[in-house]
Amino acid sequence: MEMAIGINHSIKPTFCLNPITTRSFNSTSPFLKTQSFARSVCLNKKPLFNGCFRKTPGFNSIKCSVSEVADTDTAAADAAAAATERRSKLMRRSDIRNIAIVAHVDHGKTTLVDSMLKQAKVFRDNQVVQERIMDSNDLERERGITILSKNTSITYKDTKINIIDTPGHSDFGGEVERVLNMVEGVLLVVDSVEGPMPQTRFVLKKALEFGLAVVVVVNKIDRTSARPEFVVNSTFELFIELNASDEQCDFQVIYASGIKGKAGLVPDNLAEDLGPLFETIIRCIPGPHIDKDGALQMLATNTEYEEHKGRIAIGRLHAGVLTRGMEVRVCTPDDACRFSKVSELFVYEKFYRVPVESVEAGDICAVCGIDDIQIGETIADKNFGKPLPAIRVEEPTVKMAFSINTSPFVGREGKYVTSRNLRDRLYREIERNLAMKVEDGETADTFLVSGRGTLHITILIENMRRENYEFMVGPPKVINKRVNDKLLEPYEIASVEVPETHMGSVVELLGKRRGQMLDMQGLGSEGTTLLKYKIPTRGLLGLRNAILTASRGTAILNTIFDSYGPWAGDISTRDQGSLVAFENGTTTSYALFSAQERGQLFISPGAEVYKGMIVGIHQRPGDLALNVCKKKAATNVRSNKEVTVVLDTHLEYSLDDCIEYIQEDELVEVTPQSIRMLKNPKMGKKSR
Fold it and tell me: Where are the membrane-spanning stretches (predicted)?
């Protein structure tokens, strides 16, 4: 394996771990020259390394290929000596690497993990393994996205590599923030065409704040329109924007094709396997910094539940040794403590949890026996235990009201329908989902659920629906702030990939939603344009379907929270009203034939409806009440021929579509088998 190194004259190069063939930045490769020039702009006259660094307060930088500067001034030497004295009992484990794989949605994280697992011989050669093996949740496989962070491990050259696969969607950013406490480095996966996207910025910002080592993986390098030079330079600019240190800016780049299982140090010369990636992880990600002989400390970063084992706490052991049957102290961040006992202990080996008798500091483990353990609590030594710093996550920006089902069809399909059932389930959710908040509403049967975005809350709704809950939800609302008597609202950065032929209609739509264009650029040779907007979160509500309609289903919208800003004014998110059922009954073809002239319908003949239920979209502003259950009058007058009724195909809205559609005076009724929309009976009518 070879690594590029630029050496300042005041540096004495030495090599660590295994000998490495070096290559200067003065290579004949124009790509490496461009990369070297970009980095020299950032680092100016300071030493330039193409190694890997980790800069944590109180710790020296960890370099993977170059030693420290030999000549240091007296003050720096004194500070280093004092720091060394304070860390006299600390050491690094060289046999373990803890990494998280982070990226924007659909940049190939989970597929890359698949290839890493297969090449590490986690599975038998003749074993049938499904794609995206880490996406084990049914909802994840249906939607094609990662929702929950998951742990696994592989072994490479006698070194255990603990891998954490994280979500790529910005709404699940809390999962990423949680697991960064367990790792010393991250693999930042970036698409070879799209480059850094909104979630790339978010996860990189968090990694830099934690002082983690970063290895950039330019994935999907085999795409015909790949532009690796642009992607690396854009990533470097992102490091600069996020105020990364000189050492952090000097990241190692690996080019890979996750689906083919290949990686290399240059984009046009990949190895036949992921060996270069594994070697880079060993060399550039430091081992965990531990206090082996200190008092036991383990931060519970994640929890799972199994019927036979109960609640399982997952986290990295920071200090000491944890053994099965050990009595421990469980400490909360506010120094409240209680005592418990570890009944079972597991570590991650390959794709499974393996029971062990003891775990040393630095490894990631799973602990059973502490039934009331919560995320953020510390499992500590019984006599000298102290809590570790609490996990901090970003505040939610969107809220929705959950209430019991009050429709005429209540109890037909669901098992849990009471406010007590609903309350218990929602408060159980926030034990694991740190980025979500639940508050009691104005009435005893209403609860306010706050999350990072509409999708964040929609996933909770879908999970509850599959658990046989029945309830109603109101429209999403943004969480505003008032600072110095000024009303502030959340703004997000929206990135839209759209073909040039539909760019005009998309730009017009974003302008109506109070969006401000930040950037516009072409993407490769595919005739696609990337638009970047700063837009109020209110303007994003209901935007996804509108953009798909304007672009004939070809646009891709990605958003991430940016900051709070001044109130942008009124925003109209829907111009059309709703068609509302006039009475209870069963729909007929005869009634729907006349109703479809008033707009687009959501229902088909033979469907049961009730008064106040939304049955379609009105073609004009304002709501219109319709009788969709009317039957053809039976008379004794003979007709020459029975008229054939031809109905238009009705719209089928998913849960996400319904939540985007409803407005202030409307609700979504959620049951295990059905999703219906209705007018809120507690609010005034807005009919024509």
Answer: none
Helix (H/G/I), strand (E/B), else coil: 329: strand
Look at residue 405 in the predicted model and tell me its pLDDT: 92
Question: CA 508, 509, 512 angle in degrees (round to 5)?
Answer: 90
What is the C-alpha separation between 74 and 58, in angstroms, rounded? 18
CB burial of residue 237 (10 Å; 0-12, 13-18, 19+): middle
CA angle 610, 611, 615 (to 5 degrees): 75
Per-residue model confidence (pLDDT) at position 72: 34
Helix, strand, coil % in the chain, rounded to nearest 5: 25, 30, 45
Can you list the pairs that 554-558 forms with residues at least 24 positions away whose Cβ atoms lie under 8 Å?
Answer: 554/498, 554/499, 554/502, 555/496, 555/497, 555/498, 555/499, 555/502, 555/506, 556/496, 556/497, 556/498, 557/494, 557/495, 557/496, 558/104, 558/105, 558/170, 558/197, 558/198, 558/199, 558/494, 558/495, 558/496
Rounded Cα–Cα distance for residues 627 and 340 (Å)? 63
pLDDT per residue over 262-284, tens digit each? 899 988 888 888 889 999 999 98
Question: What amino acid is encoded at 589 in this protein?
Answer: S
What is the distance between the alpha carbons of residues 672 and 607, in angstroms, rounded to a whole number?
A: 17
C-alpha 452/C-alpha 370 separation (Å) is 30
pTM to 2 decimal places: 0.76
* Residue whose entry in the numeric block shows the structure tokens 């083919």: 260
Angle at 478 between CA 476 and CA 479, to 5 degrees: 130
Distance of CA 23 to the CA centre of its chain: 37
